[in-house]
Amino acid sequence: MIDRELNRYTSGHLDRIANVLYGKGVDPNWVTLLGLALAFLCFVALSFGLFYLGLILILINRFLDGLDGSLARLGTPRKFGAFFDITSDFAFYALIPLGFAVFSPYENALPTAFLLAAFYVNGSGFLTEAIIVEKYNIKIDQSDKGFFYSSGLIEGFETICFFLFICFFPNFYANAAYIFFTVTLLTHVIRVFKSFKRFL
């Protein structure tokens, strides 16, 4: 919901770091790959109940996710970079709840199933909208992204806040997951109505 405004605040700081890395010849795909590796490490940490370590890895992963985009924009845009970035993001968003489910299957497996189902439905709508915008060459100014990014009630910032909350308060995971499941589905419903108006 506030991703765009947050990006305006953080982009200048990330750009300064990206300029240094670009000068040293660092490929943005390697930054994305490092972030993906940390996402898997975070999954392992959460599976063993190391929630504070998981929290730190989540923050580093999100920093790298912003950094790879800033770095990519300094060079020639590459289609694989955009593909690798978004698929790594989706892997990250799935691995965090999955870590909680592995840690406590009896208590967390069912709310995790609901949550991942909502992520799947919302993610499919997000990506399908981007495909249609691209396929029919619908003019939307989003030069800072490698693909059309549909804003919504629940975006990256809100999801990270949810992840940080459950790391701080793992005993509230089940209730928090059901609440986030509900608002994520609501985000999809709103996106469907917006798409109906845009594509009609």
Structural topology:
Blueprint lengths: L2 H21 L4 H20 L3 H22 L6 H25 L1 H31 L20 H13 L4 H27 L1
Q: Largest sheet, if any?
A: none
What's the SSE pattern?
A: HHHHHHH
Count of strand segments = 0
What are the segments in which pLDDT stays under 50 over at least 5 consecutive residues? Answer: none
Described by the principal axes of the CA atoms, the overall outline is: globular
Mean pLDDT comes to 88
How far is it from the N-terminal to the C-terminal residue, by CA? 24 Å
Q: How large, in whole angstroms, is the Cα Rg? A: 17 Å
- The residue fraction in helices comes out at over 70%
Beta-strand percentage range: under 5%
- Tally of DSSP helical segments: 7
Q: Return the structural class.
A: mainly alpha
Short account of what is shown:
With 200 residues, the chain is an all-alpha fold. The protein has helices at residues 3-23, 28-47, 51-72, 79-103, 105-135, 156-168, 173-199.
